[in-house]
Amino acid sequence: MKRSSRPTLGVLAALAAAAACALLLLAAAPPADAAPSWLGSLASLPSQWALRSRPTRADYSGQQLLRLTAAKREDVPRLHQLLLDLNADVWAVADGRIDVRAARPDLAEVAGRHVPLASAETLVRDIEADMLAPEAASRRAVRATVATATTPVRDLVSDPKTWFSEYHPFDEIVEWYTILAQRHPERVELVPNIGTTHEGRTLMALKITNRNSSVPLDRKKQIYVQGGIHAREWISHATTQYLTYHLVTSSAPRITALLDAAEWIIVPVVNPDGYAYTWESDRLWRKNRRSNGGGAYGVDLNRNYPANWGHGGSSKFPYSDTYMGPSEASEPEVQALTKFFLSHPRTVAGLDLHSYSQLILRPLGWERKDYAYEKEHKAVCDAMAKIIKKVHGKSYTSQKSIDLYATTGGASDYFALQQFPITPATAEGAPAKAKYVRPYGITIELRPTAEWWGPGFVLDKKEIIPTGEEILPAVLHYAENAVKNTLFE
Length: 489
What we know:
Radius of gyration: 22 Å
């Protein structure tokens, strides 16, 4: 990332203090081959500064996207953790390989000293020149010439082909959802504010069901969906919009039947501050925008949930892209989201949309032992992968989250761990001694595949509609399964 040309005194003081601390610790440090995490993090600190004034745009010139392949497959978790300790930005993990943004030119050399590598391949030679600059130029050109720049959002609500031909900034997205809800009161209740972010933006939600069905609202099971927890994953925002649009406007019998039987709870932009920042300053920003002090910003909201928080698979280093935060559920976004989730006790399934790698991940993120409801989760996730493949031929892998890499404090694990007392709405099919409903909880990592050669987070806008087309039927199946085969304990 580009550094500020004139760091603040606070930043300089923090760096000086850290450097002094490092000198004091070096004498007692373990051998180099032990790869102490504090030393790796400190070594990459200058290239990972998160402090930038609003007008300054991050510049990734000279930074590369590398593919590191471990010599032994069993060393991949160790390599992944080492890269996190080195404060590197991991993009994808698959088949013994890790794709990582190299902010330091010696990253592969340093990693190879501690974890033997079979190969280190350069996928993108210059992230700024080869990925970000062309995308930004294309976006500016499109918004200067096509209907999205001249047509009011209120008209684009009824023109999905044009709306889904481009990604949209935060304010436009809020307006689009608001108008969509206003035009379809028979299906949508807009909840304009379920919480407030660090920078004062509001988290919105929608509740979608057939309000004229014969089933009373309080007798309907609930399906919870959220998108955009990681700011740079723009396709997750767009896919959430696509799902919502079709739930709200479609007259397809399958959708109307599901809306008769269930209520959908949608939180479309989980990380508003981070998403706005990707448009204003840093296209590859991941976290929220908490000020951590010392020039560091952001907490990874998907490491901050009260789900085995702080027990590996995240970072304690405030500059890291996987920084777990100062405490469990420390972030106002996570506090609002967990409170909102728990306020819907008829919830039978939760879904968190991400990118990228084309994966369907099931709980838990920290334990190799089968989760209590592994059989049920595997069955529905495997079925979803088959459904997706039938649409455009894309292969999504159904797997345990831990088989990708270890995580704690994640949203979908939080969903799966909740217990809701059985109510008249959720009682059908419950065993005699059952007392609680356990929601299904999964994450979908959207296009592109990790097999791809390059810029996964900077997915071409032409992929928005095909991605939505393949995910919609899979998510409908997920919801139908949860309504029919609710988990009890």
